[in-house]
Amino acid sequence: MTIAAVRAPSCADIQAWSTxxxxxxxxxxxxxxxxxxxxxxxxxxxxxxxxxxxxxICPAGALLTxxxxxxxxxxxxxxxxxxxxxxxxxxxAVGHTVDTASD
Length: 103
Prior knowledge:
The chain is mainly alpha-helical. It has one domain. The protein has helices at 11-19, 25-72, 76-101. It is rod-shaped, with a radius of gyration of 24 Å. The two termini are 18 Å apart. The mean pLDDT is 69.
């Protein structure tokens, strides 16, 4: 389910709640809003966790490749560049993930 798929109560829902004596309209509206907010928060947490996982795995592979190339001595300059790139990618990805999760 996407964030856009979270359905807000329609006018017909609100009218039905307000005319039915057994339903507390204010409580029903509050519950619907709370449910929509929870769905959005759950999606944001899921995307944050997924982004953090990718941010940790990708640079780890880049750092390992850079370390192995530098250790073998054949591509030490490329290995150092790949290691630096992996570190910068991790820092940017984690910061970007945190920024988008707070929106």
